[in-house]
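Interim report, section 4.2 (structural modelling).
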Amino acid sequence: MSEENRKKLVHELEKKAIKLRIMTLEMMRDSEASGHYGGSMSVMDILTTLYFGGIMRVSPVNPKWEERDRFILSKGHACAALCPVLAEKGFFSPDILPTFNKLDSPFGMHPDMNKILGCDMSTGSLGHGTPIAAGMAMAGKYLKKDYRVYVVLSDGEVAEGSTWEAIEIISHFKLDNLCATIDRNKYSLDGPTEGPGILGERGIEGTMTLEPIGKKLEIFGWHVIECDGHNFDQLLDAYEEAARVKGKPTMVIAHTVKGKEISFIEDKYEWHYGQFNSEQYRMALEELNNKLKQLEQKSV
Amino acid sequence: MAEVSSWTMADMADLAPRDVFGKALIELARKNERIVALSADLMLSTKLKDFAAELPGRFFETGLTEQATVGVCAGMATCGLIPFFATFAAFAVMRVCEQVRTDITYPKLNVKIVGTHAGLSMGPGGTTHHATEDIAIMRSMANMTVLVPSDSIQTVKVLQCAAEYEGPCYIRLIRGLESPIMIYESVKKCPFEIGKAATIKQGNDVTIIAAGSPVVQESFVAANELEKEGIHARVIDMASVKPIDREAVIKAAEETGAIITVEDHSIIGGLGGAVAEVVVEEKPVPMKLVGIPDVYSTLGPPAELWARYGLNSESLVRTIKEFVGKIK
Ligand SMILES: Cc1ncc(C[n+]2csc(CCOP(=O)(O)OP(=O)(O)O)c2C)c(N)n1
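Predicted structure of the assembly:
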């Protein structure tokens, strides 16, 4: 890709990611849903890159296309981010998004592969996505298909034993057709990762230590790429590099901000889960719409 | 030790069971320093945060490591501590199933597993967050005691009993935003005991046996509705699902001749199954099991889900009338 086209693509992705955040908020506002604002906003640029940055091959007209790249949102609680992405990609009409969380809706807090077109796996219980991704990647090798498997984890769920068991399996079987991403927003539900330590010596808020996560993964046999998870140039580079790596799986550690682009919830972990009132929706949407306008006026 | 909070048992009537859990555990822990609490990244949701703030040295945040956390509890218990581990019921039971069975109930260790947000109370969270198999699973483990309180006051009483009892307990709480109806007046007057049922309404035409919120409340409301139509239903709160109160079940079978069980749980293996196991052996009478059928629940607001599966008082009135009509 020429440098100029790359710049254009990055600009398109910047706009798209803001538009998708607006769709998430409007969906939640219109369905009067409570939900996971923080993690949905932090992961949006990652999803945007995968689905709109030319990284993943999927077919909205043929959602079960056998050659498609597979995607697992292991942090299933960010379903409020995934639904608008799949709608925007063309898997279904965005008109049905406001049924979110309502009785019998295909869209709830966690994705259901049997109800949401374009969703490859039901998730919501953390720590399940990475083993499942391993299985998809092993099936790909076995079936001699060249699809790739993408899985996105929250940083909190890296702690799960099942995640580490899968990390071993994936490296043992040299699954270079698998690329995992950690949405490294530094917070889990109970507060910051790298939390309180023994007997609450650093206060009570926070969960278990994750660092040095990059080194740990390298020792486990993974190719590790750290990048700014809100910088599309870096995200594109990371996924393009991952596709070139042979003989080992890749982990993209995407450094993100929980609640990204909604200033009053950024880095406020209590907004992991909650419900905006109408004034908060107004403020958030105003901020996002202003940002979108600015981006549209920017020439590349 | 942190200053004593200005909160009393009397305030509990206004609190949801889940709020009560955090507060009541603090009181219990102050009386018994062997009590410690563990959270797997859900202290905000389970309300263990209150405990953590009051008794920080006795609270352990182990992050998203449920299976290992159960092992940690087992280890602590072998050294004389009384660990209370709380997380969503779906994970407190199913994620850690074999750890609970092999590391806690098999060696009969004094660990208390608290499953919050049980049944369908996680509503839009969908099947991954609904826990409609937990009673069946926990009940099938030897040495396990299964307690399902229905209101805030009973929750306090259940926690007191569980803390005093030496052995594994599973305590099932719902999300705590649901039924405002209080069944019991005060902790002192709440008749709960492990292995004992409470008859919360007399009647001799049919017996409704329920456990947990909101089904005990809904059953109570339905029974009062049925009075108006001349059906006198007995209502039994079977908060001690295991050990179950066999006497109360046998008496109900003998005196009312028909039993209907109501639970926010699968009809396979839960309270209905526990009651039926007594009924078939001791005093066979017609039974009806109301609960989630053998499907994965759909998603939606909890109240709409309970209505969908016939667990609200309106549906119960209909179901009970039909049942009584058919057999009498
Ligand atoms: C096995 C399991 N335990 C607990 C939960 C409840 N839960 C939902 S999200 C969450 C925190 C997730 O990690 P985090 O790093 O906070 O995600 P993000 O910041 O990306 O939203 C927890 C504990 C769950 N979904 N699954």
